[in-house]
Amino acid sequence: MVDGAAERPLRALALLLLLAGCAGAGESPECCEGDFGGLDLGYSCAKCGMAITDEMMGFSASLTREDGTEADFCTICCLLESGAPDLSRARVADYRTLEWVEITDAYYLKDSDIKTPMNCGIIAFKDRRTALDFRERHGGKILRFSDLMK
To answer: I need a surface site. Which of 54, 66, 106, 143 has the fewest CB within 10 A?
Structure first.
């Protein structure tokens, strides 16, 4: 877990640099589809305790608690299963760009052929067009946040 938002820009920069060699032109890091090893970034999932590595960041989520501290999650599923009473301050990582997206603004691809940590089966995108493009290549169905909660 990370306390405070001050570390987020540094964390994002480190992740982008680490994944730069892994991502291809406009495509998600394909190395993430196989082994979820990678560099341990010093963060672990608040739900399951799994270490969050550089190769898992495209699947991750984060929640700002009422006291301002951050809870990090290895997958969107762990966030949803965490029992957090208020997800309005939650963010998910865009699978392709690793940018944080508000949980209610994201488009989700569920049950595609993209392998996810913990067999979660859900990845997020900032925009609908990218989600549609990935669905064309990887299958699955596109959902919004309200659909995930059903």
So the answer is: 66
Residues whose CB falls within 8 Å of the CB of residue 111, separated by 6 or more in sequence, listed in order: 121, 139, 140, 141
Q: Check: CB of residue 103 under 8 Å from CB of residue 39.
A: no
Would you list the DSSP string of 32-61? GGS-----EEEEE-TTT--EEEGGGGGG-E
**Angle at the Cα of 26 (from 20 to 29), degrees rounded to 5?**
50
Report d(CA 91, CA 76) in Å as an integer. 9
Cβ proximity of 93 and 59 under 8 Å: yes
Contact 114, 47 (CB under 8 A): no
Does the pTM of the predicted model rise above 0.70?
yes
Residue 70 neighbours by CB distance under 10 Å: 20
**Interatomic CA distance for residues 127 and 82, integer angstroms:** 25
pLDDT at 112 over 80: yes
| Alpha-helical regions (H) of the chain | 8-19, 76-80, 128-138, 145-148
Query: Using one digit for the tens of pLDDT, what is the confidence trace for 83-97?
Result: 998 899 999 999 999
Domain boundaries, the chain: 8-24+40-148
